[in-house]
Design a protein that fits this description.
Elements (H helix, E strand, L loop, with lengths): L1 E2 L3 E3 L2 E3 L6 E5 L6 E6 L3 H17 L7 H17 L1 H12 L3 H25 L3 E6 L2 E9 L2 E5 L5 H15 L2 E5 L5 H14 L6 E3 L4 H9 L5 E5 L2 H13 L3 E5 L5 E4 L5 H13 L11 E5 L3 H13 L19 H16 L3 E4 L16 E4 L6 H4 L6 E7 L2 H9 L3 E2 L2 E4 L3 H10 L6 E2 L13 E2 L2 E2 L4 H6 L2 E7 L11
The structure holds nicotinamide-adenine-dinucleotide.
Amino acid sequence: MTDYDKLFIGGEWRQPAGTDRLVVHNPANGEVIGSTPEGTGADIDAAVAAARSALQTGAWADASAADRSEIMGRIYNLIIERSDDLANLITAEVGAPLLFSHFGQVGATGMVLDYFTKLTAEFEFEQVRQDMLGPVIVRKEPVGVVGGIVPWNVPLFVMMLKLAPTLASGSTMVLKPAPETPLSAFAFADICIEAGLPPGVLNIVPAGREVGEALVRHDGVDKISFTGSTDAGRKIGAICGENLRRCTLELGGKSAAIILDDANLDAIMPELLSAAVMNNGQACVAQTRILASRNRYDEVVDALTEAVGAMVVGDPASFETGVGPLISERQRERVEGYIDIGKNEGARITTGGARPDGLDAGWFVEPTVFADVDNTMRIAQEEIFGPVLATIAYDDPADAVRIANESNYGLSGSVWCSDVDAGVEVARGVRTGTYSINSFAMAWGAPFGGFKDSGIGRELGPEGLEEFLEFKTINLPAGTEPTLKY
Ligand code: NAD
């Protein structure tokens, strides 16, 4: 049991303004595993003030890129050193299967930080260009105080997608973790203290949406970086629009995995399963629409049914488990609601659809495959955020691309095939921000983000860093040779 009685503000554990608490339950058995104070608007004020002051003292923004990179490297080393503890904590907090907690949650968090640590050391924060009237310095300055708002499903990883470029840019951050997952955020605060991150560069105030909105509206915030549902993203984007506040929105998805006729089903199935139901299906990038040609539809449905039906459902703390519980009772009700919707829409369940036997204490639902799904059905159009797959038949690859694109979302997608060139052609036709062939992958050095209702802006790669920089042009007298500063 881990109980915190303070918030992480200004580099220290500080008394919260209110008395309400966030109680964290292990979704696998409902037991209480810890608690933290629930932040209030007054705590957000204090955290923004600390972040602003850290920005103005220059301890971070004016440190050389090499110095910033060195501290980021120390944080990385501590993440690696504590990866077992962090993975166990995330499994207890989120219900993520332990193997996924190691690689998809903590391992990926470390890799993202490592990428930005190296990028910081080599990035050109100032460049000189020769223009018509003389040389010009193009300078990339920190965006300022960033409000980072993250969901519960991959809490440290999503935080790092925002924090690493914040640190790289010389900006500072107020992080609002989701109320379901404050413990991993606070375990990370300890790492920052030990790594010597200057006070106020990162401040953490866990709370719900109302307090999140106070952060979005706060006059002391220069940019909001949000990951979460499309509904919340719309609201946050509107507030940022009114206030002309920079914002990046990483939102939901309903990605399609297109299985071409030359795919070897046995070979692709393990990777396809993990792409489809990773993190118990609670992943924005999950490949939840499975598109198979009419020629092979029955064969694909049978293979998928067998593979999903054989997945080990149970204690996420075991390395053998493929599917753990959903985050909360409310989330299970939502997923079960969609299973009912699918049945009422006329789709056919080929495996799953109920609660697994003998797992009554936690918020489990069986991994479920629907066949005979039409792409216009709600189970094909709406994000379920659980281990529920919809298999849809297509006529030919062009029809598959059409179906994949008939979605309000545009986050991710995949194609499964033997002829990689044919796969790349499919990838070119699908309007999503990320696409993979015979896998689901994220590339740390390349942009990640959504088309359409899946968001605005990009994370990762140099493009992801530039979202945390303001560009400034300094015109110089002709013939000057400036000394650049990093
Ligand atoms: P959510 O939108 O309910 O909440 C996400 C975070 O935003 C939480 O911290 C919440 O407290 C806060 N929040 C909610 N409404 C807010 C508001 N009006 N103002 C300020 N803060 C607000 O989402 P969730 O249920 O926690 O997470 C699941 C969603 O996140 C799914 O839709 C999923 O697809 C999406 N997601 C997207 C990505 C991505 O990179 N595109 C990654 C992970 C999750």
